[in-house]
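Worked problem 6 (solution included).
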Amino acid sequence: MNKVSILGSDNQPILYASLDGDDLLFRFEYYSSEDNGGDYEFIHRVLPEDFASITSRFTLDPRKEILAQIQEISDSGRGSDLHEALTNKEIKNELWTWSG
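Solution. The predicted structure is:
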């Protein structure tokens, strides 16, 4: 499993999760159809020592690989909860953003 699509309440992708070395990345890119900009991208980086906070918050099996756990969150309809927890820093992460 290389990349996980995390679905929101409307069953559309709201984040994409993947590993970058040992770190877990959650990213999303939006490209506006307008000529005057409105494009943006953000990446949340969760370090391995903080994976346990995801596991415990969503009551997951810690023996599973982290991407399998993220897939389980999405499959159970809790993708929006994960997105909110990352955005509100309830799950420790480093945030990078770009807009243009």
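Discussion: The beta strands are 3-7, 13-20, 23-30, 40-46, 94-99.
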